[in-house]
């Protein structure tokens, strides 16, 4: 986690993400790239491409530069190497392009979606980034204060396709010095006896050097409700999951969540693309 990209729209949610990114960077001797996207009308984009300076465009750019410079002076960034980028591009495209161009290790984003597990991503730039990013994406929904991850829940079916992204999960957990709580959610439509589930998880984890971990089986009506309830049960600091690109969360989250559970899904979530 040497290079951390933090997109910002200068909202309070983006600031929450920046504070978490700063704490991670300080613990890992990393640096932060602050990115602000200026989404301009098509005609303005053409003018920029042709090298013309339109007063309105320069006004927006200068105002954004001033706000970025002020943000770079924030005390949470004291002692860190921080660079800034202003990109004339749609938010999602810009985040993806800057991430690849700078070979970042982690993207940290704020989200102001509804307070639920699905709503955290659906219909937002964060959701698009989560589904398409090749590097881990950490979503922050509230002011975390001190970002100390003691309990990191990772739910999976622990099949072979999870092996490659799981190496990143282990690296992430070890660097945060977190205990990795591996959980298999048993549902009525996909039920495994305890001894089979334990055997699958034990065989899977034996291939990795995890500093601290425990395995769990949790029974619930569907996968997403099980993850939320298990995270609440162990009082998790972070929830992790793997995504399948475009199928991603719509494939993973295939049931409904009651409003009560939705309102409790405020924990940070980190995703790893398969």
Q: How does this model look, in words?
A:
With 274 residues, this protein is α/β, with parallel strands linked by helices. The chain is built from 10 helices and 10 strands. It has helices at residues 12-27, 42-49, 55-72, 91-101, 125-132, 163-175, 194-205, 223-234, 248-252, 259-264; strands spanning 3-7, 31-37, 81-87, 106-110, 137-140, 151-155, 179-186, 213-219, 238-243, 269-273. A 10-stranded mixed beta sheet has the order 3-2-1-4-5-10-9-6-7-8, with helices on both faces. Helix 4 runs parallel beside helix 5. The longest helix is centred in the N-terminal third of the chain and has 18 residues, at 55-72. The radius of gyration is 20 Å and the shape is elongated.
Summed up:
By secondary structure, the protein is an alpha/beta fold. Helix content is 40%, strand content 22%. The radius of gyration is 20 Å and the shape is elongated.
